[in-house]
Amino acid sequence: MEIGRDWLKTIFTGGLAGKKPIIPIDFELLQLEAAKKLNKKAFNYILTGAGTNQGVLNNREAFKKYGIAPPMLQGCDKPKLEIQIFGNTFPLPFYFSPIGVLELAHPEADLELARAAINTGITMVYSNQASKSMEACSKLLVNSNHWFQLYFSKSRELVESFVSRAENSACSAIVLTLDTTTLGWRTLDLENAYLPFIYGKGIAQYTSDPVFTKLMNSGNYQDIPNSTQHKPGMFATIEILKSYPGSFINNIKTRNPAKAIRCFLDIYSNPHLNWNDIIWLRKITKLPLILKGILREDDARKALDHGIDGIVVSNHGGRQIDHVVSSLDALWQIKKTLPPEYPVFLDSGIRSGTDVFIALALGANAVGLGRPYVYALALKGHLGVETLVQNIATELMITMSLCGCKSIDDIKPDLICKNKFISQTHLE
To answer: N or C: which end of the chain has fewer CB within 10 A?
Structure first.
């Protein structure tokens, strides 16, 4: 994979032959092109935040608060971007965050993202709400580092099955998402009256699970639930039957799609999730356990005290709570309360290599890419995602070189300052 000056050279020499990058370099243009490619409901599901979308805006505004103050004459040519996490080498200090229902962006969904992960060496975090099972992805990623994101179901038996499958799929960490114990008030989805799970999309981890199958067949799950007893229209019914594993005819006979959707909606999240559940989860797996969704210092300390191996400072891309504090603003305060060696990751709001640099300078060990890779996936499949990785890695490398950083460890807080009326105030 070309990054740094090699990638710049490829882009510019390609221009001599009339070639432009296969996806837009600028995030706003990338998002605009994805909006043209995807149907409205699919694009809005990816785009939407909670409420007025202030949480999404907060994530971007937070990065504008910080400037980079580069020292001169540091003599750095080709910075090293490798990092070590839980004994594994990351070639770049970012990973693919778990994003559900990738079939909305590409027919091959998680499998296509897995191909990009193979070709770039980037760690993929399997989504709990994936369109393809973790086993299917792991067959592709047999020699690549990969993690599993877990939603804590109402059924501990199902949680235990997911964890066991992740272990058997050679996942090297479990990432428990804490902030989705109930679905957020996502405005655009509500305007469209659209939830992909009701169509049987994004539930492949469940339909491939033996415990879920047992639960599905043991309950009264014959029809798709709704409070007004509306029945799905013909086109919706056909879409549901096509989305579910197995033949179209068999799905009509068994009614498995309807049963699976009802069962999923009934048990997929646990609104009563608490620290006792975390203690139990810690006991049932030896894999590193990471808590995703931490935004407060006291919760970060509790995670450390409960033997959790790392945290992700995240507000779920602003999708769960309107006016939620930005992940970046929370990061600096949280990092100061924890031992320096304790792994702290960040997602939500990352759009560029410079964003990665700022997050690393403020204390993140690595950052998660989210919406940008989904848009790249929608436009050009795995090649689009690989190009996005090259773009972000190259901008990061250039920024490091211009700041005299020979490695990721050299990206320190003293390279960052608060933007206040153009004056430079270094972080306290």
So the answer is: C
Does the active-site annotation cover 106?
Answer: no
State how far the Cα of 344 lies from the Cα of 361, in Å rounded to an integer. Answer: 12
Burial of 281 (0-12, 13-18, 19+ CB in 10 A): buried
State the catalytic residue, choosing from 316, 323, 382, 426. Answer: 316
What distance lies between CA 364 and its chain's CA centroid?
A: 16
Among residues 242, 213, 214, 245, which one has the least CA distance to residue 136?
245
236, 199 contact by CB (below 8 A): yes
What would you report as the CA-atom Rg of the chain, rounded to the nearest whole angstrom? 22
- C-alpha angle 204/212/97, rounded to 5°? 40
User: Could you tell me the domains of the chain?
Assistant: 5-187+270-426 (3.20.20.70), 193-266 (no CATH)
Residues of the chain with pLDDT under 70: 220-255, 420-428
Predicted confidence at residue 229, as pLDDT, reads 52
**Look-up: residue for tokens 């243009």?**
29
Residue 259: its pLDDT value, please? Answer: 86
User: In sequence order, what are the residues at sequence separation of 6 or more whose Cβ sits closer than 8 angstroms to the Cβ of residue 38?
Assistant: 46, 104, 105, 378
Report residue 143 as tokens: 């020699």
Task: Give the model confidence (pLDDT) of 18-63 as tens digits.
Answer: 999 999 999 999 999 999 999 999 999 999 999 999 999 999 999 9
Q: Angle between the 371-402 and 40-47 helix axes, to the nearest 10 degrees?
A: 50
